[in-house]
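Revision sheet: structure tokens.
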Amino acid sequence: MTDLIIIGAGPGGYETAVRAASLGLATTIIEENRPGGTCLNVGCIPTKCLCRTAELLDDIREAKSFGITTSEVNFSISAAIARKDAVVERLVQGVEGLLSAPSITYIAGRATLNENGDVTVMKNDGSSETLSAKNIIIATGSETKYLPIEGAKSRDVVTSTELLSIEQVPQRLCVIGGGVIGMEFASIFNAFGSQVSVVEYCKEILPAIDKDIAKRLRISMKKRGVDFHVGAAVTAIEELETGSAVVFTEKGREARIEADVVLMAVGRSPRIEGIGLEAAGIAFTPRGIQVDENMQTSRKGVYAIGDVNGLCPLAHAATFQGYRALHHITSSTEPISDLSLIPAAVFTVPEVATIGKSEDELKAASTPHHVGKAFYRANGKSLAMGSDEGMVKLVSDESGKILGCQILGAHASDLIHEVSTLMATGGTVSQLQTAVHAHPTLSELILAAAEA
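Predicted:
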């Protein structure tokens, strides 16, 4: 019997396996696809590769405003995809190297739990094996959702997975869903030259983000040529002779958008089917496997981390949830991370990053609070960069304790971690105010928000 079985080798699974091995646990990790999971193979990493390509294209087009004359830009989607694939392959090999450690056993196959709490593996080579362990961690991730409408899986409809390997830039791209995935691809393909339309059911894009930030992002992207339809419900997708028509209702009227490619980006569902949850007596709902604060399921010794538990659909959340499970498994007394403080980033142009509570949430809860704002247009470094769109919002309680931060603008995904680190130690606005920030830097925006 091994000490720990991990089902799934995404960021939560493989990072937890490496940490478990370092703690002396004999660990077996099972994955039916390539190690690295959705994030590394068809999610975070490949998307960020295309984001970088899009960023370079935008920079080249804006070079004229810096007094630089450029010749015609020759963009190759195949070259961009090839670079993306090379980056992914390099990182996958790195993960494979980590999982080849002596105390880790890697099995390629599909795992299923049974009523005894054992794990049966149908290996990719056609053989099978039943394994037992003192503890099991389920880290099977998530899969793309589809709207329950006519034509949802028709000819021209793709998910983010297919769009990451598209061979030709679509002239017309319709994105169904204005969440993180939808907005990142809308930003990327707008830079690639597609005519992009976004149809979002909620009243604003990025519905989980501060409304002020989301609105400013939508306006910024609209200036770049992205067309938005918010508060719109898609009812059908119709195949045409060339392309498809996305049919939706907006303000009580039916409307249509014709597109060559339709991206289904309406969220992801936990991958809970076919892994034996019922047989093992593990409680779950369509939203995910139910867990306690230590990520333990209703069955003692079985844990669930990452997208499959539905708590926070972020790769780094999965990793730290895995660490929390290990903390419980090993009865560690070391300090643990506050899993209510998970920074998030959206890699659009401009970027969005958040942590903690937003002004909207605090208003809705009638919680007394203060908001400090700082604007990129007043920051010397951002003006020098030619990136003056955006703002920082710093939210604190009446005592000055920082409750949250929302950033829209260049390098937002990097800037958020100053606040994240401070919040993890119960930091205050006054502590930020007294911390010297280098000039000229974008980090001064954090200081300016604190001083406001």
